[in-house]
Design a protein that fits this description.
216 residues, alpha/beta, 6-stranded parallel beta sheet, 8 helices, globular, binds 3-methylbut-3-enyl trihydrogen diphosphate, binds magnesium ion
Amino acid sequence: MHVACIMDGNGRWAGRRGLPRTDGHTEGEENLARLVRVAVTRDIGWLTVFGFSTENWVRPRAEVRHILGLHHRLFGRLDELNELNVRVQWIGRPFDDPQARTPKYIQRAIRRAIADTAQNTGMLLTVAFDYGARQELIDAVRRVRGDGLDVTPAAIAEHLYLPELPPVDVLVRTSGELRVSNFLLWQSAGAAIHFTDTTWPDFDGAELDAALALVT
Ligand code: IPE
Ligand code: IPE
Ligand code: MG
């Protein structure tokens, strides 16, 4: 079972409480850690979450800096992830792409998280950072052509950023946005969609079970 979450609504969560948006992001990161703890007790082999998009760089500098710090924290939760037998992956614009924007200290945290959890055999947690699905597809087509292959569905699937990622079974979008995002567009063809008004920091095990109920 592959569950993919568009973790939206951190800003609104904070706004409703009269808090700065950054507090919403902090709570959102903590909620992801809580949700991973729940997810490993369900029949979920792959959990993929949208942490930061290629479009999100235009946000105010201070907000971006805060979100970067939270990803550093997230990829640094190695004791927790190892205790849960969770393997970490990352999906996004390759670091050597001229347009890639992931700062060096996040790159290091990502590389370390992948290496230090590589031996785990449980759930695969993939974090999308500096990720955009359209760019992924453009890159895939370029790679296919670069390899001198015909552009076929199978060839594209094999040239995505993470070809081993299985199709998405359930796509979750929080905070009442009834629309898709620039997230896993190829991988989520045919996926069930769980839309919920709950903002990401409040997305809990009961919400996860509601999403899973769509496909089990
Ligand atoms: C999602 O929450 C987190 C990121 C996109 C990084 P938002 O920051 O988009 O929260 P809203 O949509 O403004 O409530
Ligand atoms: C989606 O949230 C991206 C992430 C959760 C990282 P946004 O708030 O950026 O999404 P759009 O642009 O409204 O679709
Ligand atoms: Mg949003």
